[in-house]
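Self-study notes.
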Amino acid sequence: QLFDIERIPFGERCVYIHQGDIEHAMYFTGARKFNLACDCPFRESYPVQVFLRKMFKRFCCACLQNQATFVVHGSDRIPHDPGYFCYLCFLHFFADKDGNLQKPVHYQFFPYLHD
C-alpha cells in the first residue's frame, strides 16, 4: 500500500510486479489529499489510470479478412513466425475434420487478444 512507504518517489521509475515475474514501469506524477466533494469514495476506484495505449488487433495471415484469435509459434507449415490465425483458418491449417490437432504437434499456439 502506498501509505506504507516512507516517501512517494515522484518522477522516478518504479516497478510494479504481478504474476511473479511480469514487470511494468510506472511513474508517480502527482498527489493530493482526498476530498469527498469531488473524489470517488470507493477504494476500488484507485489508483486512477490516466493513460491507456491504443490496442492493435492483427488480421488472419491466411484469409486476411477476419481478426486473429490464435498466434502460432514454431510451425514449419506457415511462412512467418509467429503466424496469426482466425478460428476457422486455424482449424483448416492445424486440425483434422474432427477438430483434433494433426500430428506431429511440433509448434505452440496460444489465444491471441491484441498487441
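Second protein, same conventions, sequence then structure:
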Amino acid sequence: MFDTISGEYDGLNRVISFGIDIKWRKKVVEIVKATNPDSILDIATGTGDLAINLAETKASKIIGLDISSGMLDIGKTKITAKKLDDRIEMIIGDSENMPFEDNSFDAITVAFGVRNFETL
C-alpha cells in the first residue's frame, strides 16, 4: 500500500496531523540529541523525515529502515538533496525481523510507523 502513495505521503501526513507531525519530530530530536548518540536507527522511517531531522544530533550513522521501497526512494532523494548521504542510509527491511545485531545502536526511534505494526 505505501509504495502506491509514497509520492503523496508527506503532504497527506501534514494534512492528517494538522502539521503537528513537524513539532513532534522536533521534540523527538531534542530528546535523542540530549543522549549524544553516535548511531541511530529509525524504524519504519517512511520517506525519512525523522531520520533527516535526526542529523541535527551529530550522530555519525543514521539508518532508516522501512518495508516500502517506494517510501525509501522518496527518502533517498530528500537525503541526497540535503547532502546527508554520508550520514544517513536507507535500508529496506521488516521492523519485526531486523537485520541488525542486538545493541547495534545508541538510539532507536519510531514515528508514525508504530500504528502499522502487527505485533508490539
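Instructor comment on the second fold: The chain has five helices and four strands.
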